[in-house]
Amino acid sequence: MPRQPWTPSALRWLVLPLAVGMTHVVLEGSADAKTKKTKQSKKTGPSMDDNAGKENEGGTAPGTTDSQSSQVEMVDQTPKKKKPGEAEPEPVTLEEEDAPPQSSEPEAPSPFPLNWLSLMIQQDFLVYGSTPDVCPSVDINGKEFKGQGDYSCRDSAGVYKGDVYHGAGNQVHGGFGLGTLRINLGYDRVLGSQWQLGARFGMLLLQAPGVTGSKAPKPIGGELRAAYYFGDSPFERQGIRPFASVAAGFAEVDGKVSVQVYKDHIAYEAKHPTNLDAWRTTGPFFGAVSGGASIPFGNFMLSGELRAQLMLGNFAFSPAVALTLSYGL
Question: Which residues does 75 contact at the CB level (< 8 Å), separation at least 6?
């Protein structure tokens, strides 16, 4: 049977599947193109593929970025909400750099000693006023008189226990007598250039004897003192250094005078007196002012002074002389 030629109807059945397939390919290619375009628009910088093949203008390796091509990263600085039970963050404080230490020059040493140790010997005196009825006595009628409270009448056996006739003798005449001897150790500190402030403490000698029936003497004494040295920079001078001082402290000043008494009116009429020692006790506190001068030699200083002391308690006026040897440190 002879072969029939192709007809347009047969060609149409062949072309139709081919057209449907091409349409499907075109639609898929368009969709892929749109997807690639969307991804490229979200890129933040060139990719390694985009940079591949391009000339490296900045001298960096392909696929790397430098300061010119990198993008600034945005950081969220909004404060975060605190979670329940979470501790508060500690505030960050910037420590200031410590200031460089200021160099301070050391103080220059004093040109003279500031601390002084001393040994003082002081002789006290007592001024006596005219005083009647010193020792306890009895008059012709048997009336008793107590005597003076700051005096103690004694003989070789101790406190005198015999009779004393009232009305003759038995008195102290005014005058000046030897008193207590003091030996003190002291310390003084120079303040400024002209002042000294210090203290002294020591023992008392030549006091009233402690015998039965009388008050025992206090064998110690002490004082605080302040002295002012005259002139400019007196502790730097090598010559005489005059000064004045004030002091206050505790100490007894005792002294002895002789008293004539009569045992009765018969002894008085017969002029047969008895001699007793009348010990006077003053103090136990005092205030003093003094004036004197010092002579330096090396680190030592020898001072002499005259003192006027006012004894308090058993009132009395007691001048004194003192000699002090000091050593400066």
Answer: none
